[in-house]
Hints:
Layout: E1 4-10, E2 17-20, E3 30-33, H1 44-50, E4 61-65, E5 67-71, E6 76-81, E7 90-96, E8 99-104, E9 109-114, H2 117-128, E10 140-142, H3 144-147, H4 153-166, E11 172-175, E12 180-182, E13 185-189, H5 196-205, E14 209-214, E15 218-220, H6 224-228, E16 241-242, E17 245-249, H7 255-270, E18 273-278, H8 296-311, E19 316-319, E20 333-335, H9 356-365, E21 375-377, H10 390-398, E22 405-406, H11 415-424
Parallel strand pairs: 10-11, 10-22, 11-14, 14-18, 18-19, 19-20, 20-21
Antiparallel strand pairs: 1-8, 2-3, 2-5, 4-7, 5-6, 6-9, 7-8, 12-13, 15-17, 16-17
Helix pairs in contact: 4-5, 7-8
GO molecular function, one term: hydrolase activity
Keywords: Glycosidase, Hydrolase
Protein name: Glycoside hydrolase family 36 protein
Amino acid sequence: MAFADIGEIRCGPGETRVFEQGWQSWSPTGAYRLTDTPPRPADETIQILAYRPETPIPDGVFQGEGLLAVEPGDGSVELWSAPTPLQVPSIRAREEDGRLVVSADDPVRHHRVEGGLDQALRDWADTIAEKRTFPAVPPMWCTWYGYWDKVTDADVIENLKLSERLGLGADMFLIDDGYEAEIGDWLEGRPEFGSLARAVDAVTDAGRRAGIWTAPFLVGHRSRIFREHPDWLVRGAYAGRMWDQELAVLDITHPEAAEHLVNVFRTFSAMGISHFKLDFIYAGALAGERHEDLDPIAAYRRGLELIRRGAGVAATLHGCGAPMLPSIGLVDIMRVSPDIAPTLQPKSGDISQPSQLGARLTGAAREFMHARWWVNDPDCIILRPEVEAREEWAAHIAGTGGLRGSSDPIASLDDWGLETTRRLMVPTSTDPS
């Protein structure tokens, strides 16, 4: 739909703040003054990977996905928002002659509240989702930021033993990207990794939970799925470029592709894996021609339901790179920020990309979601000596109620890093932030 004007508000440049809600986990989110330039994608590929591809933001315009809030400076807040998580309009505000003119490309709800922006966001979050209780989630250890995609089964087992011996407190061990043969070929192992079954058995035999990473809606062009099942792909959908290859999208409305997806997670569950990190799942909501004529958000939600069917009702589903509002009610844990990195600043200058700065800014802006929609994941604790501004990152993690997960090779931690990691490795808060 085209954008149509739906309201306006008087504003003062020095007082007014506009809150932009980003589309997915990695999309920048925060409140900006009228004189600020909000974060925008550095290039077209990042627009696909970390923003909402179908609604690029014009210059000089504020834009929220499913929520845009304006705090004019008089104590009130005006919010324009999605009517439900199933319908997520893009909402814009442009400045004209001392006014902010608001427009949207789909119907929205509008309401005015008192009490400031932080309280308005909490109240809005309570109204758009059914009330749920979220039990405390114990801390974890993750392979990614220490070993990247070169991880081996021996690395998992070594850190399992070190965690036990040094009292790190990790209850779940997450095997991230690097065990699989190709993006899309999740049940075929990368030979250099070793044995996935061996690593999982070591974790569960130690009385800990095993977790695994997938990007379930992505199909890399090098994968066997891409070569052998072109009919399983969403026609016209382009998910970007990563892992030195182009990325297609699995069409979960195709009956055979749907059964394949269920079987992947059923197979992992039968191995003893109970925690599933679902990454890059923005891909499931990309527009394109599907086997069944289904709206992209509806297709995305069906994909998560299929994953749940395979993983089991007791499994933990952990979203990342995930459309925020469309995931409500379907995931247990949600990454609420871009990836952390050993560096303070993102290489591209775009804070949707891995960096400590981007993770801190967007994670803090989304703290209000914790224990309302899901358990927040602010991303991993990395505190080895070469991590820039590691004290500031530790302080950010300490200030959140969300998931705690170490991702350093434990042997690489100095005394401060080990002591601080131990202190931070506590269960999640059960109270809304």
